[in-house]
Structure formats: C-alpha cells, structure tokens
Amino acid sequence: MHPTPLDAERAVRRNFGFDAVGALGTGLFNALVVNFLAVIARREGADPLLLAALAAAPFALKFLKPVDLFDRSSEILKVPAR
Q1: pLDDT tens, position by position, for the chain (82 residues)?
Q2: Inter-residue contact 18 to 31 (CB < 8 Å)
Q3: By three-state DSSP, how is residue 4 classified?
Q4: Which among 8, 18, 16 is positioned nearest to 78, based on CA atoms?
Q5: Long-range contacts of residues 28-36, Cβ cutoff 8 Å, at least 24 apart
Q6: What are the start-end ranges of the E strands in the chain?
Q7: Is 21 exposed, middle or buried (CB count within 10 Å of its CB: 0-12, 13-18, 19+)?
Q8: For residues 13 and 17, what is the distance between their CA atoms, to the nearest angstrom?
C-alpha cells in the first residue's frame, strides 16, 4: 500500500518537529556550554595546546560528517512521485 498525501504531511510535520527541537537544543548548548568551555578549561589549568585543540575540534569533526555512523535511511518515508 502506498502512503497517502496525509501520511506524507504527517511525516513532514513529525520531521519538522524533530528538526526544530534539535536546532533549539543545539543553540542552547552552544550558548551555554561551548562559549565558556575555553574559559573553564583555562581556569582549570589547561595548557595552550589543549585550548587550541578545544577550539579546533568542532571544525575538525565536520570532516567526519560524511562518515555517518548511524544509517537511518530505512526510517525515511518514501512518497511516490506524481
């Protein structure tokens, strides 16, 4: 049985909800934790090399994004083309 347009609309709303919550969580985490990570590390006695690694880590990890460890392609609702 093929999904109906109503099923597709439900899937889009559900996925938008996941994306919105994820974006909100990411924004709050970046605002509350990441901005102060270097300050906290420095006060705890981190050396300059560790501070540089903390600053470079988010950019270095973006190179690993194409190597996704979790394949969720089976969860995607496939809507037939019209």
Answers
A1: 667 888 888 889 999 999 999 999 999 988 888 788 888 999 999 999 999 998 888 788 777 776 666 656 666 656 555 5
A2: no
A3: coil
A4: 8
A5: 34/58
A6: none
A7: exposed
A8: 6
**DSSP code at position 67:** S
79 residue type, one letter: V
Task: Give exposure, 34-72, as e/b (b: 16+ Cβ within 10 Å).
Answer: eeeeeeeeeeeebeeeeeeebeeeeeeeeeeeeeeeeee
Q: Hey, where are the domains in the chain?
A: 5-67
How many residues does this entry show for the chain?
82
Nearest to 40, CA basis, from 49, 27, 31, 51: 51
Best CA proximity match to 39, nearest among 29, 51, 31: 51
